[in-house]
Amino acid sequence: MKNNSKLLASGFTLIEIMVTVLIFSIISTVSYRIVSSLVKTNQIVEETQNKWGSLSLVSTNIGRSVNRLIPLIVRDNNGRVLPAMYGRTELSGMYDGQLEMTLSGTIGDEVTGVKPPKRVGYRLYKNTLYLVSWPVLNRSASTTPQIDVLLDDVVTFEPQFLYSDGKWYPTWPPEDSRPEVLPSAIRVDLVMKSSESITREWVLDR
């Protein structure tokens, strides 16, 4: 009997076991919440970085186009003259862009070769920003462009143009202006659904 009493005395009581289980449960719950919070925070940071990265790529794409901008008019599928740079707020055709411009050609090496001048447009349609690239400058009735998605979940894409009076306007060219005339500067405001936004300006040294 004495040996049995000593054996029972050396073990854990039911209360001690319950307290131990409770402490373990609390630690496990807290640890899970911490890990879950860290994972969620990491996902948010990664998503934010991806969004800003995408915005930066779009800005770089537009900047490269602006740097290759030339005062060369083109003709659309109906033979109408399009200004060297065209900015508008209302789109009527399925390939129209809020911002269109004629780009210079490039002379590369033996691999890249020579690229002729081309016409590109940036079109926001149903919250997606597209790059519209035409294969020729002066189109025929059957000419169709290449269309690439630049960015999704866009709520605002607003090009603005600096006029000679020092003010910004949402359209280009001005009334009674020659179609080959270029603005002094271009500004683009771009806003995402998730509220990220950028504003970029390019001065045209023409």
Any overview of this molecule?
It is built from two helices and 13 strands. The protein is α+β, with helices and mostly antiparallel strands and 206 residues long. The termini are far apart.
Give a quick set of tags describing it.
206 residues; alpha+beta; 5-stranded antiparallel β-sheet; 4-stranded antiparallel β-sheet
Concise account of the structure shown:
The protein is α+β, with helices and mostly antiparallel strands. The chain has helices spanning 2-10, 14-67; strands at residues 74-75, 81-82, 85-87, 99-103, 106-107, 114-115, 118-125, 128-134, 146-152, 154-162, 168-169, 185-192, 197-203.
Present the secondary structure layout.
Layout: H1 2-10, H2 14-67, E1 74-75, E2 81-82, E3 85-87, E4 99-103, E5 106-107, E6 114-115, E7 118-125, E8 128-134, E9 146-152, E10 154-162, E11 168-169, E12 185-192, E13 197-203
Strand content: 25-35%
What order do the strands of the largest sheet run in, or round the barrel if closed?
A: 3-4-7-8-9
> Tell me, what's the shape?
elongated
Largest sheet data = 5 strands, antiparallel
Based on helices, strands and strand pairing, what is the structural class?
A: alpha+beta
In DSSP terms (H or I, runs of 4 or more residues), the helix count works out at: 2
**Multimerization state:** single chain
Mean pLDDT rating: 86
Order of helices and strands: HHEEEEEEEEEEEEE
Helix content: 25-40%
Q: What are the low-pLDDT stretches, counting only 5+ consecutive residues below 50? A: none
Radius of gyration: 31 Å
Distance between the termini: 107 Å
DSSP strand count? 13
